[in-house]
């Protein structure tokens, strides 16, 4: 796997380069000006060293050729040839070729000193057509991506104006699930744009457009619900084996069976390995800002669970490398919030299995060890109470040992009610308020816990009633799920018992 240009894009560009353009006729028609043609011919279909020398000896002239000058007599060739689609396509490919091989041209075009609005003749081409068969928007996106990434530009014109529009366009490509070629172009060009903190910040600010389609691709690859919300969370908790099933290699094989037999060159849902790699590359780049985005990335997209499941299924060392590095960045920067979820998702046991494989990548080996050490240090200092609080804080319950332990409740029920001014019961109330249509076990577990709190600390049951928990428990007695009905009946029984005893 590599970051070479997608085949579809390369084929399109080669086709356009091979097309004959009647330049002299274009000059006679006023489509191209004579001075513009002279500069085009100096760099078109010539050897690379000749092209490079011509551009570097006249950087300002070529800046004006493509971006336009200050006067009306210095229009951009894209402006002059606006009505000739064939010429516009050719110029866009030529410009991309020049910028890729001559970085100084990109810097000259985007220089604020030279041109207050370097994008005024290029950016509008992104919205030139809604026709999916029109290559101009795609070629424009490629040119803009190359310009920004080669120059590593963080000017206001780039970050505040051009980049948001470009990211929006690329996100539409990333959503083209019926066309993996376009998806790959959108994702790979997005990756090229995340060259600095400012561009990553803008990418994250537009996450409903930019991150969401990437997460959907990853969910498809992981074989879990792509709808988001409770359905996805429930699917991920089940997939990680954190619902009480055994871990280790059996958990790994069960996870693979859930997504079916892996196709040649693809993973779950038919997601191509190349596309998967590029999506993971973008999320890894985003994790450079883990302290700013980590909590929200997991809160909104269940990312720690998703990455853990993908690590379990990862078919290639390169995808494993990106997943481990991303998790290391996120967990290191957000220890108090994300490490508990990682432990509940059984990441430590999974990392032990991953480390047992033979990896040639020394960076992967180092990151694996660092991540294992990080998790070991965390778990070594945590009590059963800490584990329970961490589980409740995830917003998703499983039948972990504390729930059925009479010793645990005898020792910790009062602390659970009093800790942080009753934050844990409030969180339980929030969990119980959801329907959990695809994971009714969560409601059964919550009823079990409420019943234990009432049983151990009956004098505080009025506090639970104020949170609406008694009413909710009574409602759940009418649930279709047998386990939920039973646990709600048990919980209400405790309430009634103490109510009668105090009369």
Automatic annotation (TrEMBL):
<comment type="similarity">
    <text>Belongs to the V-ATPase H subunit family.</text>
</comment>
<dbReference type="InterPro" id="IPR011987">
    <property type="entry name" value="ATPase_V1-cplx_hsu_C"/>
</dbReference>
<keyword id="KW-0813">Transport</keyword>
<protein>
    <recommendedName>
        <fullName>V-type proton ATPase subunit H</fullName>
    </recommendedName>
</protein>
<keyword id="KW-0406">Ion transport</keyword>
<feature type="domain" description="ATPase V1 complex subunit H C-terminal">
    <location>
        <begin position="382"/>
        <end position="500"/>
    </location>
</feature>
<keyword id="KW-0375">Hydrogen ion transport</keyword>
<dbReference type="InterPro" id="IPR004908">
    <property type="entry name" value="ATPase_V1-cplx_hsu"/>
</dbReference>
<dbReference type="InterPro" id="IPR011989">
    <property type="entry name" value="ARM-like"/>
</dbReference>
<comment type="function">
    <text>Subunit of the V1 complex of vacuolar(H+)-ATPase (V-ATPase), a multisubunit enzyme composed of a peripheral complex (V1) that hydrolyzes ATP and a membrane integral complex (V0) that translocates protons. V-ATPase is responsible for acidifying and maintaining the pH of intracellular compartments.</text>
</comment>
<dbReference type="Pfam" id="PF11698">
    <property type="entry name" value="V-ATPase_H_C"/>
</dbReference>
<dbReference type="Pfam" id="PF03224">
    <property type="entry name" value="V-ATPase_H_N"/>
</dbReference>
<comment type="subunit">
    <text>V-ATPase is a heteromultimeric enzyme made up of two complexes: the ATP-hydrolytic V1 complex and the proton translocation V0 complex.</text>
</comment>
<dbReference type="InterPro" id="IPR016024">
    <property type="entry name" value="ARM-type_fold"/>
</dbReference>
<dbReference type="InterPro" id="IPR038497">
    <property type="entry name" value="ATPase_V1-cplx_hsu_C_sf"/>
</dbReference>
